[in-house]
């Protein structure tokens, strides 16, 4: 989830660069000087057949990974959140695509598993291989973070304004009643959520929309952060960005990031277009044989077409209805404390 937060911080820094290109350049040079590039996991080294991938030099796609890992854990974990951030320099647009982690997918070299298993099997490079093989889009780099990093980011911006439904508030109050981190200290209505509250909110999947509601909440948090930071001055945003980048692992170099930052300045947009894959009406879901895992089984041809059209504008418009109808008060009866095991925020 911090991956979205970091992207948000960087993009907002660009949008409010009203001090002028020269002054902004000095800020962004300072900002990017703290970046450490992980060349060993560069997406450039991934074995993909690039001739089969859609690519446009004026459309930059960054893989965002939020890892399901605590600060004191050694294992890599699974990808809790996977998104593609798109900077469309040709059309002056910013886009964000959520990839559902429960998609039942053929992971190269490992067979069929849930999509988020790709990260635990082979890290960001295998995630890219899986995306390339099934959706046919070229990715230009990645940013990776874990849960502790997300909390640090929220702390840096002073909390996240968020309006909770009665059921969402009741869930946090009940499921985290014994927590020492204050997740339960929320109310129905408007809240300024602490780092622990924000992470707990992002991870709720106990309403009747399950994982779909979860990704919806993640996007709501992103938009809230985005809107808050748009109001800040350039020095404040730059300071937050500098500190936040210390929690990011990326294969992008300092010069690449600085080039992207400066390129986006001229775009002038402060909106983020969003897509969820698989999109509504393009999948079935259910348990694997018997009492197996609950999975989403997309129509990969339809979703490949949809993702390529959304990112690059290629092919025919699939006519997606993105009114997902999520964020409701319909939680499953008795589905509160006992289902938080394994999704704790600490």
Fold and architecture overview:
The protein is built from 10 helices and 12 strands. It has 346 residues and is of the alpha+beta class. A 6-stranded mixed β-sheet has the order 9-6-1-2-3-10, with helices on both faces. It has a two-stranded antiparallel ribbon with strand order 4-5. Strands 7-8 form a two-stranded antiparallel ribbon. Strand 2 (78-88) and strand 3 (93-99) form a beta hairpin.
Features of this protein?
six-stranded mixed sheet, globular, 12 strands, 346 residues
Order of helices and strands: HHEEEEEHEHEHEHHHEHEEEH
Mean pLDDT: 77
What percentage of amino acids are in beta strands? Answer: 15-25%
Widest β-sheet, arrangement of strands:
9-6-1-2-3-10
- Amino- and carboxy-terminal Cα gap: 15 Å
Q: Tell me the Rg in angstroms.
A: 19 Å
Low-confidence stretches: 11-23, 70-74, 335-346
Largest β-sheet summary = 6 strands, mixed
Global shape? globular
Determine the number of helices (DSSP H or I, runs of at least 4 residues): 10
**Structural class computed from helices and strand pairing:** alpha+beta
Helix-residue proportion:
25-40%
The number of strands is 12
Topology:
Blueprint: H1 2-15, H2 21-32, E1 59-68, E2 78-88, E3 93-99, E4 104-107, E5 111-114, H3 117-135, E6 141-145, H4 147-156, E7 160-164, H5 166-175, E8 189-193, H6 195-202, H7 210-230, H8 234-244, E9 249-250, H9 254-265, E10 273-277, E11 283-287, E12 294-298, H10 300-312
Parallel strand pairs: 1-6, 3-10
Antiparallel strand pairs: 1-2, 2-3, 4-5, 6-9, 7-8, 11-12
Helix pairs in contact: 1-4, 1-7, 1-8, 1-9, 2-8, 2-9, 4-6
